[in-house]
Design brief:
The complex is a heterodimer of chains A (226) and B (100). Chain A has 226 residues and is mainly α. Chain A is globular, with a radius of gyration of 18 Å. Chain B has 100 residues and is mainly alpha-helical. The chains are: A mainly alpha (226), B mainly alpha (100). The interface between A and B is large, with 105 and 74 residues.
């Protein structure tokens, strides 16, 4: 595991193992939900890494179970995954500019690997951290989904063992260092307030997208126009 | 979800990542907008954390998760390892749920 850490990066062995364990746990929880919602087991396993967005899948089944049509469910899934497009826009300039790596990397833009890659100072280290953290996430995600599918009858309710806070807790810990300076705290607080404030009045996922404006609202007044 | 629905969903999700990734020419951004773009992941992740802590299916619902995430924040503030943060969050949430 230690050899997986790029020289001079901020990534640690412990973080890499935690990324693996968390995505494994999240995969189990999501697979159980999808199977309970009537998804065939092979579809859960195969599409885990083809869709590469648990939140889009969860939004889709939530909309169906809420009585929505296939079309509205699809739109709600895509609405939720819009954030990956924005994350891709933010991290892409630091990753590969061309070639197959560029298109493979974009497919693998998630929240935690983008966050750990983004905190590196130089782009070369950022790319290597992105690769290593993705190599921890993707197999964990696939294995977790596979196990969750196989054991869905036995696990019962994933919430009983607190699996629903595993992902937000991981993400909170990853962004914590960025919140040690005042600007970071303001961005995070503004985004959280916008997201929660708009949650009830906007369709699923849209409040996250609107919350992105927190980045501009906080940083534009703080930086000098040229 | 059927395999066909899943495939259509997957195509849309990849298209979003692709468009996001190739749409912005970083060399032509002013330093000001580069700073804004740099704060986008933080804003998104903070929003996701806030929503996953306080809402269920689009409505605000404060339950055991709030305790679990409070404990997670405390652990992160004390600079405990990532693994501890995650385990404590799940354990506190599960315990509060079991007691409630």
């Amino acid at each position: 595991m230690r050899r997986l850490i790029p020289e001079g990066s901020q990534l640690t062995v412990g973080e890499l193992i935690t990324l693996f364990a968390t995505y494994f746990g999240a995969g189990v929880a999501v697979a159980v939900v999808l199977v309970e919602a009537g998804t065939e087991q092979w579809v859960v396993v195969v599409f885990a890494v083809i869709i590469n967005s648990a939140t889009a899948q969860l939004a889709y089944v939530a909309a169906i179970e809420g009585g929505g049509s296939t079309v509205t469910a699809m739109l709600s899934g895509w609405l939720v995954s819009t954030r990956f497009g924005l994350l891709a826009a933010a991290i892409a300039p630091r990753l590969w500019r061309s070639g197959w790596q560029r298109y493979l990397a974009l497919h693998n833009v998630f929240d935690p690997n983008t966050a750990v890659a983004d905190r590196e100072a130089d782009d070369d280290t950022s790319r290597r951290v992105f690769t290593r953290s993705t190599l921890a996430l993707t197999p964990a995600w696939f294995l977790g989904c596979t196990l969750g599918t196989a054991l869905s009858d036995r696990i019962g309710d994933p919430q009983r063992i607190g699996l629903d806070v595993v992902l937000p807790a991981l993400l909170l810990a990853i962004i914590w260092p960025q919140m040690r300076n005042a600007t970071g705290r303001r961005v995070a607080a503004a985004a959280a307030v916008l997201a929660i404030g708009l949650a009830e009045v906007t369709p699923g996922g849209l409040s996250t997208i609107i919350a992105v404006s927190a980045a501009g609202l906080v940083l534009l007044p703080e930086t000098e126009p040229r | 979800m059927t395999w066909l629905n899943s495939l259509v969903l997957a195509i849309g999700v990849y298209a979003q990542r692709l468009v996001g990734g190739v749409a912005i020419d970083a060399d032509r951004l002013s330093p000001r907008w580069t700073a804004v773009l740099g704060a986008v992941p933080l804003a998104i992740i903070a929003a996701v954390v806030a929503l996953q802590t306080t809402t269920t299916a689009g409505s605000i619902e404060l339950d055991a998760r709030v305790y679990g995430m409070g404990a997670a924040a405390l652990c992160a503030w004390r600079k405990l390892p990532l693994f501890v943060v995650v385990i404590v969050a799940a354990a506190v949430t599960a315990t509060v749920r079991a007691l409630g």
